[in-house]
Amino acid sequence: MSQLELDLTKVKADPSKDFFISMLVKDITLRDAIGDLVDNAVDAIKLKSPNPENLSNSKITITLNNQSFSIKDNGFGMEAEVARKYAFNFGKSSARVLSKKSIGQFGIGMKRAFFKLGADIHIKSIAPTSQFELTIDVNKWQLDTGNEWHFEFDKGKLSENTSNAESKTGLEVVIKNLSGDSKTSFNDETFIDKLQKEIALEHMLNINKGLTIIINGYELTANQISLVNDENIRPSYWEKISSDQAIKIIAGISEKNAEDGGWYIFCNDRLIVAKDQTAQTVWTGTKGGDGVPKYHAQYHRFRGYVFFEANDSGQLPWNTTKTGMDMDSPVYKNVRSKMITMTRQVMELLDKLKEEKEKGNPTDSQTLNKAIEKSLNSPKPVIEVLNTQVVLDNKFHYPVALFNPVSKSKSVRISYQVSPERFEAVKQSLDADNVEEVGLKTFDYYYNNEI
Known about the structure:
The chain contains 14 helices and 15 strands. By secondary structure, it is of the alpha+beta class. It has three domains: 17-219, Histidine kinase-like ATPase, C-terminal domain (Heat Shock Protein 90, 2-Layer Sandwich), CATH 3.30.565.10; 227-413, Ribosomal Protein S5, domain 2, CATH 3.30.230; 415-451. This is ATP-binding protein.
C-alpha cells in the first residue's frame, strides 16, 4: 500500500494518461501535427546553419502512406541531455532556453504530433556531441498506471561525449501503428496534395532561402512574395526594432490576382496568416475606426506583409497552434492599427484607379491607370524591396497628379441588359471587375475600331 493511500489527509489528483492524450490531440489536425514536426526540423536546421539566410544545403524529407510516417532532417540533431531533461516533457520547462528566433515555442508540438499520428514511435538522433535512439510504444505506456511518465533510451543506442561530423547530424522520426485518421488520410492523394501546398506556403521564405522540403518524392516550390517599387510607386513602410525583437510592416501593390491579394503575417520566417482578406487583419467591412471596407475585386492588387522576429518565440503574437494571430495580444493590436492605416493609404490609389475608369472616360485619358499598369510589369521580391537603398517611409507614394477622371457634366450614361451567361463570358474575356467596366470597355472597343 502506498504512502498516499495511508495518508488520509491527502486527496489524489494524479493525471490520467488516457485523458491527457485525448485532450492533447483533440484540437489539432493531422496537417497541423505534421506542420509542428516540420517547424522543429526548421529550428534544428537554422541552429546548425552558420548563415540562416542561406539554407541551400539543408533538407527535410517526409514520407507517408497507410503503413507509416517518417520525417528526416540534416539539422543540428537533438543532444541526449536535451532529450533527457526537456524535449519529452509535456510542456516547455522554464529551465529550458530555446534557440534564438525559433518557431517551436510551447513544448507540446512534438509530443502531440506523435500521439496524433500513431502509437509506435522511433526517434534516431545524431547531434554534435551525442547520439541516441528512443522507441515509444504509446499503447504500452498508457497501460502503465503508475506515476512514471518517463520514456527510456533504447539499450545500447545511447552515446555521449562523442564528436560527430557536422555532415552526419540530424533527426529522424518513424511512426507506425498509425491512427485510423492517419491511415485514411495518408492514402488520399487529395490530402497529400493539400499538405504539400500548405507546407510550401508556410515555409515560403525558407524555401526561397534554399531549404529543400520533399514530401513523397515531390520537392516543394514557393512563389516569391512581391511588391511594386519604382519611380512611380513606393510602398508604405513601418518598423520597430530593439535588441531582442523586430517588427516590420510593408504594404503596396502587386499583380492583379484575387487569390494572392490581402495581408501576409510571418513570425520568425514562418507564415502564420496567408492572403488574409478577413477581419483577422483589417477587412472588417467598416470605413473608419477598427478596419476598412470588405475585400473585393477592386483591391486584388493590394499586398501587405508583416514580419515579426523575436529571439524568444514566446514574445510572438500567434496562437498556440500557429494557425492565426492572438487577437488579444497588445503587440498585435498595436501592429493591426498600423496595418489599417497603411491599407487605407493603398486603397486611396485603388479607389482612384476605379474612379478614373468610370463615366465613359476613354482609355487614352486614364493616365493614372496607364502609369500604374506600366509599373505592374516588374514587381520585385519583398526581401529585395526591404533591402533597397531607396529610403522607404510610412507614406504610400503614387503619382496622384496623373489622376484624370471625367467630370459628371461631360459624361453620358448608357444602360442596357444582357443575359448573365453572355455578361460573364464578356467580363472574363475583358478581365473586367464589374458591370461598369464591362460597359466602358465594350464601348471603347466599338469607338476605337469603328469610329
